[in-house]
Design goal:
CATH class of the largest domain: Alpha Beta
Distance between the termini: 35 Å
Strand order of the largest sheet: 2-1-3-4-5-6-7
Number of domains: 2
Radius of gyration: 18 Å
Shape: globular
CATH architecture of the largest domain: 3-Layer(aba) Sandwich
CATH topology of the largest domain: Rossmann fold
Mean pLDDT: 93
Order of helices and strands: HEHEHEHHEEHEHHE
Number of strands: 7
C-alpha cells in the first residue's frame, strides 16, 4: 500500500511494527502533521482562534484526521469546527457555515484533492469566502490552494518502490514494518494570497520548499 491514511483503523493491518497478514507499505498516519498545519496557519494569522476542518464523511479515516487536529488544536488554544460533508454539492454550504461560526481558516482533508480532484473548486470557494486554506492533498497549492504542507510525494513513491522490491525478492509483507512519512514539503501560492488579500510572512516564505508566484 502507498499513502493509506489509517491502515490500522480501517483493519488493513494489526499495527505499524508488525502489520501481519499480506499488506505492508507506507501509511500517512502522522499525528504531528496536524499540529504543524495549525502552527503554519497561526503564523499566517496570529490572532487565529477557530479553524474549520472539511472532512469527507464517506471515508472512515476522516475521524482520525479530525481527532488528530482537535488534539493538536487543544494544546495551542484553537477550537476546531468539523465540517463533515458527503460530496462537492455540500462544499459551498460548508464554507458558509465556517464563516458563520467565525472560523478564520480551513483545513481540507487530502482525499478531496488526491482522489476527488476538487482542488480548484475548493480553492475558488476559499477565495469567494476569503478563507485561508491548507491541505496535504498532493499539489493543492499548485492547483490554486493557499498552502500545501505534507509528505514529500517523490520520497513516498520511492519508499513504495522499496517495498515492491523487497516483496518481489521474497520477503513476506508481514515481516516488513509499515513506515510513516519522514520527508515533508511546504508549498505556498502567492497568487492565491494576493486574491485573498493577505500577506504571507517572510518567515514562511523563507522556509517554503516552493513558492508559486
Amino acid at each position: 500500500m502507498g499513502t493509506v491514511a489509517d491502515p490500522i483503523g480501517t483493519g488493513l493491518i494489526a499495527n505499524l511494527a508488525r502489520p501481519g497478514g499480506n499488506i505492508t507499505g507506507v501509511s500517512l498516519m502522522s499525528p504531528e502533521l496536524a499540529g504543524k498545519r495549525l502552527e503554519l496557519l497561526k503564523e499566517l494569522a496570529p490572532g487565529l482562534a477557530r479553524v474549520a476542518f472539511l472532512a469527507n464523511g464517506g471515508d472512515p479515516a476522516h475521524r482520525l484526521f479530525v481527532k488528530e487536529t482537535q488534539d493538536a488544536a487543544q494544546k495551542i488554544g484553537i477550537h476546531i469546527q468539523p465540517l463533515v460533508v458527503k460530496g462537492p454539492d455540500e462544499f459551498d454550504g460548508a464554507f458558509s457555515a465556517a464563516i458563520k461560526e467565525g472560523s478564520g481558516a480551513l483545513i481540507v482533508q487530502p482525499l478531496f484533492i488526491t482522489i476527488g480532484g476538487h482542488a480548484r473548486t475548493l480553492a475558488e470557494l476559499a477565495i469567494k469566502y476569503r478563507l485561508p486554506t491548507i491541505s496535504d492533498g498532493n499539489q493543492f497549492a499548485e492547483l490554486g490552494g493557499l498552502i500545501y504542507y505534507g509528505p514529500e510525494r517523490l520520497a513516498l513513491d520511492r519508499r513504495v518502490a522499496y517495498y515492491v522490491d523487497r516483496i518481489l525478492r521474497g520477503t513476506q509483507p508481514a515481516d516488513l514494518p509499515v513506515e510513516q512519512p519522514q520527508t515533508f514539503a511546504l508549498v505556498l501560492n502567492l497568487q492565491t494570497a494576493k486574491r485573498l488579500g493577505i500577506a504571507i510572512p517572510q518567515s514562511l516564505l523563507l522556509r517554503a520548499d516552493k513558492v508559486i508566484k
